[in-house]
Amino acid sequence: MDIPNFAASFLTFRVDWNKKQSLTASHKPPFTLNNARIQIEAVCYITDKETQHRTQYVLGAACKTEYVGVDENIWTDPNADFCIILSAESFLILKSWDKNDKGVMRYPASLGTQPERQTGQVRDTYDSIKINLRTVQGEQLDTVEQIVNATLADDILVGRMVFTMQKHYEVMIDFPIKTMNANERELIYQTDTGPILFPDFTLAEDELIANFRLAYVAFNSPDWAEVILQVPTPLNDDLSVNHYSKAVHLKTQNSIFRMI
Fold it and tell me: What is the pTM of this model?
């Protein structure tokens, strides 16, 4: 069975200011061209069961906002956490500063403030994108004992979670298992890993990609899982930050694979 090889999988977005102005920048770039290659953290497939249309979404690893190619002072100030979610046609960029509603301006300022969740069409802001999700052979681990043994042997593990949302969407999320708890005495395992991308349809956005949030996932059973979502989290009446604070329990079909 083919499973994702996340360590060897990358997304790349190409920005060429000589062809089109980026709609996501907060500063004038030092150079007119950049190819940003980012390791893929997780992949999500959403299938509309009414039309059988299936869309692939990939989550890029987190990075920080930066000036690319300068001699010093690389980090933007104020600095933001940055990650991107891509499909073949659309994108969602997530940015987090030290507080929500920071008010950082886009470049040029006529574009307004930087949103913390920015969606758009790939063709409108990028010269091109590439999604290179490489696969390897994997073996499904069918018993708790197999999972525990593979964990303690330091095998490379990949998780898969399948579930239904909104009645007509089938969701399948694949992710590397970075953290796994294992107990060889009482035969217990439990994932605690992320970030993954998770569709949160309480956002009620028309574009599917606009409903994604970052999440961590934990499960110790084949038929349920819990995720904890990154959401705006109040610190007081006037201040909130993006934090993993919304827990959701799901009926799921969970699988664990060992890379061969």
Answer: 0.96
